[in-house]
Amino acid sequence: MESNLRLEVTLVLQAPILDAQEPFALPIKVSVHNAADSPVTILRWNTPLDPQADVLGIFEICDTMDQRKLSVPTIMVSRKLPASEDDLIEIQARQTLDVTLNLPILGLEKGHEYCIRAQGTWHAVWPSELSNITMSQFRDNKGANSGGFVSNESFLHTINMEFYKLPSPQQDARAVFEVLKRGGIAIIPMSVGYGIIAMNPDALDRIFRAKQREPHKRNAMVGSYSLHQDIHVLSNKEAGMVKLLTVDLNLPLGIVAPYRLDHPIIQKVPQNILAQSVLGDTLAMLVNGGALLEELSRLAALESLLLMGSSANITGKGTKIVVQDIEPEILKLADIVIDYGRQKFHHPRASSTIIDFRTIKVIRYGACYDVVQDALWRFYGIKLPDDPGTSTPSSGQTGAKRI
Known about the structure:
Elements: E1 7-13, E2 19-20, E3 24-34, E4 40-43, E5 59-63, E6 68-69, E7 88-91, E8 96-105, E9 113-126, H1 135-140, E10 145-150, E11 154-157, E12 162-163, H2 169-181, E13 185-190, E14 193-198, H3 201-210, E15 220-222, H4 225-231, H5 236-248, E16 253-258, H6 264-267, H7 271-275, E17 278-279, E18 282-287, H8 291-302, E19 308-311, H9 328-331, E20 336-337, E21 354-356, E22 361-364, H10 369-380, E23 382-383, E24 401-402
Helix pairs in contact: 2-8
């Protein structure tokens, strides 16, 4: 469609869609045609020509069956003023500029049709070549025009699409992170089973109540080895044990250890949420939960945000290794569910092994416990007790002998 600036925006779906995912990245070619008889120079910001156009909220996706608008992950971008030459782009008279982007989409349903269009505002368009724009014009948009744009409507049909997930940890982590920042709840795959996570205090409280957790049950921080190093406080020997298990042997592990109260992430946590997540001066953190979890932890750490969670199940009903086994009352809490199928560390039991590294006490027997036990004996001379077996609940505490 044409704006009063004679700039036409056209969307074309790029390729046949064979696999649908949630979240799903839809490749779209965006064409901007200058229908005028003279060249124009355009400020890219918040337009289809912006390098971050896919997450700026300029695309709208609507289910044509019920007119329901789908959620499109968006971000807020801080712009450095004034604009620089890199923020401008020139289109010659009667010429077209094409860009291709991958639009993240949440909540596709099989058998539906979806309408996609772009709309927004050209904030500054100069009727001139880029070389003729002066620095003073950059600073105050002098001589520039502005106006709205609306693209054509492009349609996505899911009638013949097979619905199954292809893991894409980086893309999926970004979609989950945007949901969490808006106060939502996510169910995600972890290498030791499916977990349910949130950042918002109200969302964490809803999880706590839905899981029917008793007051003494704690949430764990969802993290990474680098975050563990930043937040936990351990002596060189105990820190070496953690490195051995999580870096050298690459094992999933729940780490209980003293933590830094002055850490920027901890400082942001409301006291009631912190109280549900710590025991005395210790904080539990899951490390090596899988590629998606690592990327999600990285995104959160960049913004000094705390990811908290627990297994996606009713308390006492066992960690779930496939989404289909998660109780309905837990599933309905989630604003987004990432399904990667059966998780790999589930034998002889799912969930993470948890160790208190102040005292080398086993808090929970879980995944890869036999490997953890062997490594600490072999390299540190520490004898952990044998796993009492899968017939015994895995939440009991026991001690370790130092040889």
